[in-house]
Amino acid sequence: MCADRRGIESIMRKFGNIVLTLTGVTAAMALCCPMLVVLGFVALIVPGLVLLAAPTVFVYLATTLGIQRILPTKIGWAAFPIAPLLALGLGWLVMQPIRSSAISAFRAEVSPDVLPSQPVTLSGNVYVENGELYRSPECDYLCTMLLDLPGVESVTVESTGPAGRKRDPSVAAFALVRTGEDAEPGVFPSNPGQLIRKHPGLMRRVKGNELRQVEISLEADWALRLSGVERIVQVEPTPAEEADWVVRLVSTHNKEIPRVERVEISRTGNDVQFRRSEVRHFVPGNVFYLGFDLQMAVGTISGASFGIGGSDWKSSDQRIDLEPTFLQAIEVPLLAELDDTRERLRREVQRAIDDPDASPARLELARRWLSLFFFDAGPDDHQLIARVVDDQRVKDIAGPIENVFSKGETPIELSTAYARRIGFDDATETERSQLAKALSLMPPGTFAKPDPAHLAIWTRPELYEQAGHFLSRLADLDAERAMPILRDALDHVSTKDNWSQRRAMVEGIRDAYASLGPAAKQDATRISTLVLQRPSPITSGFNDVQAWRLTLARMGVSLDDLPFFPHSSQQQINRTKTQIRDRLQRIQSEI
């Protein structure tokens, strides 16, 4: 009888080992490639369930078999029910400290909401801790709105996001003051029109197709105000403990701690007048198991993984957006009618450009006006835009003019104004590069009869170093006039050490040679020599070398005479020649 029992126990153990092996292999597959679980559900559901459960089943089965082996042999058959129960108990025991710690962390962050019956009225010095700000504090739409509230004297902004804490100054303060009209421009707010998009109450009052226009009108209104007797100026920050009001926009996204979204408005002395919170935290389950997590991105599954099983605890079923929640909690004055502010701004820009004695603050209106375009400048705007660009009193237009015209759509009427701006002594490198790109994309032949301002760019290295793309338009001239300038530019390129300094010039020169075609063939030998030179002043890699080969082919150089390096194999050479021939045929078919 004992022998039979031992035989049955041996069979049971062998069976358990086989099941453990099969489960372990399945678990390893699921853990190493979690997306198999997803495919299993998509296929027949059952394979997905098996793969999903396999890691947890393997852990408990291995634990059960291990416990059976250490149990006394005298308990016999009782070991089979006892071992699984002990395994489950061990799974419960292991999870209790982790679960208790997570629950304590969650409860420590939960604070009761404080929802007053009336909107909070802010005044005096306001301190804003912004957990969604990941850059140096600036006077954005939120700061601007607060400064516009009656009774608010200053706004101190603290960036509590990671970028602000690690790299940038984390605190800055601003005030809206009254000055004379001739005062310096001061600080212009960043995107003040965004208030419309962020305030739910204002958003509901604007029709969808009017939103952009209302946003622009609000920004135009601020531009007009800040060119008059009002200025936003940077002031000494008020410490949080000395501020009349403290606004905390808390946002934590660290997976190791509870995720907190909280808006809190308090008076001096931590007298909370408003608070809304949303706390979320992952709390492990009562009993150990391996959970499955899917990562979603743009409506698709971007990844999957296994981890300790549990659930997300939430303090509220309603998610909150920090800034909109804050805006709804305070008393924001109604906006005035803004229908004509953009047109009024345009008229003021016209007057400022016409006035030789216009103050810097009034001239600043020109930059603000340019920044309101979104690839929608019409023919009626072109003349004034040209005058703004051509006025040296208007400083640094690189940012404002970026979205005035679509790529390749800059009107020819602006070609001279753009060229003159490039020639200004105080023009920035970004301005010159940006305007030169716009000039280079104008229709062929635009510069066949160049203005002195265009010639100045082509012949002054200090200009075309930063406006290199405009060198491509030398092709609008006849070869006799263009070639000497291109040769001088090639000589100048060779004097620059860094490819970043040479790149725009090289691309402009290369495009000019390509457009001139066979008329420029006399320079082919020199270009081939420069391509093969090491280090080469006109290439920075294979793509540049290949682009020059195509250019030489367009200049009339035969495929057999294109430059190739001595170490190139015949197979590589033949493949490259085929590529050049095919590209050349496509270009010729498009002409």
UniProtKB/TrEMBL annotation:
Keyword Membrane: yes
Keyword annotations: Membrane, Transmembrane, Transmembrane helix
Domain of life: Bacteria
Chain segments annotated as transmembrane: 15-37, 43-63, 75-95
Keyword Transmembrane helix set for record: yes
Record protein name field: Signal peptide protein
